[in-house]
Here is the input.
Amino acid sequence: MLEIQNVCSAYGEARVLDHVSMQVREGEIVALLGRNGMGKTSLVRTVMGLGSPRLTEGRILLDGQDLAGLRSNQIAARRIGYVPQGRRLFASLTVLEHLEMLDRGSTGAWTVKRVFEAFPRLGERKQHRGSQLSGGERQMLAIGRALMTGPRFILMDEPTEGLAPVMVEIVEKILEALRKEGLGVLLVEQNLYSALAVADRVCIFETGRVVWEGTPAQLQAQQDLLERYLGIH
Here is the structure.
């Protein structure tokens, strides 16, 4: 289990997370919702130990072992995958090269063949460079690249951002398949309806704090919460 306990983090002296606590179990999708600038991306960056923002208080536990103070590559080695906002691909590398650089045969890791089976479009464009891919293809590759590391938990930051509806459906199906395989997913998502379609639990962020937690059904039944924290009328 991935546990976040009373976590605070800051950019310099400016606190962006204020005693955040939550859990993600294996085989569970937890969606983080909230307006822009409320701390969702800051949380996943803090969990991954990316250095900015900086963890100032609290603990991040994986199966009871504290990850605080570890470098991001050490956290990844403990089988936590990361799909960053904006994809962060190498413009000059081909699809195949992006995947092969991570093909280490680790326990539970996906193979290049399996990524191409899940995303046939990537197989068709395996010799295309990162700069030649569409937004949807780039997102497929970012997810496939994370799965090549064999994660037990995967953090996804806005995976449907800027995607056409048909691509959003593909991402949703992949998330559902990952859950069935026992992966835990911490999902930052601005697309409310996509998040509610796949999540087991939802946490709403407001100014660096979790102000509500519950199931998608419970959230949909509370119009006042949708209006107050998400601007949905």
In short: The first helix runs from residue 40 to 47.
